[in-house]
Design a protein that fits this description.
This is Oxidoreductase. It is a single chain. Helix content is about 30%, strand content about 20%. It is α/β, with parallel strands linked by helices and about 450 residues long. The protein has a domain of about 200 residues: Dihydrodipicolinate Reductase, domain 2 (2-Layer Sandwich). It has a 9-stranded mixed β-sheet. A 6-stranded parallel β-sheet has the order 7-6-5-8-9-10, with helices on both faces. A hairpin with a 2-residue loop joins strand 15 and strand 16. Helix 1 packs parallel to helix 2 and helix 5 packs antiparallel against helix 13.
Length: about 450
């Protein structure tokens, strides 16, 4: 097991290891009933990674998307994967996700929709008795995070958020957290987080809604507005599909798109030293692609999330977490730098560097250091994040990226966006989950959903 190879009749079998259990990725001798049945809600570009990873461990029996072209692609790929594994299993296509939740045979759902749909579908999926794998960021508001945590506790469903940095990327982030846990940089004093800025679009004209797209349902809880599209670049400029990330109506810009990864790692590091949530968030600087008034963009025909920004988040013990679009003066444009009383290091998806990292050559981490921060489990050799989810479904335990830790990280991101949009410091009470002394800012913890698309717990 430790050598990373298992032989069966002289043939190596792919596996993942969690704790003391070994589970084959593709056990072709199993009957179809031995593999969980999956319903995929949302089959756009990001699903091209999530869907195939899930299909290594279960069988997709239904796909859902409000874009018929996406749904057809999802069915074609799912049926091909089923056939490849010797299972001639038909995959149903639906436009309404509730038809997937109504099916008793489906045990697991993947949610790979635009951000503003995550919470509603996830809550209803848990109430329908499904275990959930949902892409990040999980929420559009802090109130949605509170509701998801409430329902997760009530239903006992297993829920993995798609923050793959907690499991994969060569275990660079896991090693970083393990170093903090082992005291290699002493007490954390400051964290620099660089997550990139949002793009600009210029004016985007009103356009005809594509025939295959149910635009009204795509909008969901967001206001009913015209469809807009302008050709250009890889995806074109639009209010839809990949480009939803740059509209506050559907997402939170880079603050939630990449903050869901890097702010999550920053707070995971703070967790190792028992540091709670933020106390205050100060907007040092922001550049928006459109003028703002009372926290709202004054133009509706272009991207509206900030292209550049800097928020200073203060945590207990006078720890500053600086969240910016870039930290080039520190030698990196994307990543996280942890500064402690004994040294500092930087980590991103390509490297883990700094004097404490060099010292590992002569003073390596204990053999169980990764397991300690990975909830007593060992990440898989490949497909680790999804494998961790499926194993936790079997064990009925919280996976490595549970809703509770993700809600804490997203609370910081959402508060940062509130501070940027209102252009003032917000003070946070982590226990009551309320902004202190600012009733106007507190109204931004939730938002009114369009009738028929409310998010209820």
């Amino acid at each position: 097991m430790k050598s990373g190879a298992i032989a069966a009749a002289g043939v190596a079998v792919p596996y993942y290891l969690t704790g003391d259990k070994v589970i084959a990725d593709e056990q072709k001798s199993e009957s179809a009933n031995d593999r969980p049945l999956i319903g995929c809600i949302g089959t756009g570009s990001r699903w091209d990674a999530v869907g195939p990873n899930a299909m290594r461990l279960g069988d997709v029996v239904a796909v859902c998307d409000v874009d018929a072209d996406h749904a057809a692609k999802g069915r074609q790929r799912s049926e091909a994967e089923n056939k490849k594994k010797g299972r001639e299993r038909k995959v149903d296509v639906v436009e309404d996700y509730r038809k997937i939740l109504d099916r008793n045979d489906i045990e697991i759902v993947t949610i790979v929709t635009p951000d503003h749909w995550h919470s509603k579908i996830a809550i209803e999926a848990m109430k329908a008795g499904k275990d959930v794998y949902c892409e990040k960021p999980l929420t559009l508001t802090i109130d949605e995070g509170k509701k998801i945590c409430k329902v997760a506790k009530e239903t006992g469903r297993v829920f993995q958020v798609g923050t793959q940095q907690r499991s994969e990327m060569g275990q660079l982030f896991l090693k970083a957290i393990a170093m903090i846990n082992e005291g290699r940089i002493g007490d954390i004093q400051k964290i620099h987080v660089a997550i990139g800025g949002s793009p600009t679009s210029g004016p985007i004209p009103v356009a005809d809604v594509p025939k295959q797209l149910n635009w009204e349902m795509w909008l969901g809880q967001a206001p009913l507005v015209d469809y807009r599209f302008k050709p250009g670049g890889q995806w074109g400029n639009s209010r839809c599909h990949y480009e939803f990330r740059w509209w506050y109506e559907y997402s939170g810009g880079k603050m939630t798109d990449w903050g869901a990864h890097h702010v999550d790692i920053a707070q995971w590091g703070l967790d190792q030293q028992g540091i709670g949530g933020p106390l205050s968030l100060e907007p040092v600087m922001a550049k928006f692609p459109t003028p703002y008034a009372d926290g709202m963009p004054t133009q509706d025909d272009r991207y509206n999330t900030p292209t550049e920004f800097h928020v200073r988040a203060m945590f207990p013990n006078d720890i500053e977490v600086s969240i910016r679009n870039e930290c080039n003066e520190l030698g990196f444009g994307n990543g996280i730098m942890f500064e402690g009383t004994k040294g500092r290091f930087m980590v991103n998806r390509g490297k883990l560097v700094g004097a404490p990292v060099e010292e590992l050559k002569s003073n390596p981490l204990p053999e169980d250091a990764i397991q300690k921060v990975y909830k007593g489990m060992t990440p898989a050799n490949g497909n680790a994040h999804m494998a961790n989810f499926f194993e936790c479904v079997k064990l009925r335990k919280d996976p490595i990226s549970d809703v509770y830790s993700h809600h804490r990280a997203m609370t910081t991101c959402h508060l940062a966006n509130i501070a940027l949009r209102l252009d003032r410091t917000v003070k946070w009470d982590d226990k009551s989950e309320q902004i202190v002394g600012d009733d106007d800012a507190n109204r931004w913890l939730a938002r009114e959903a369009r009738k028929g698309y409310e998010v209820t717990a």
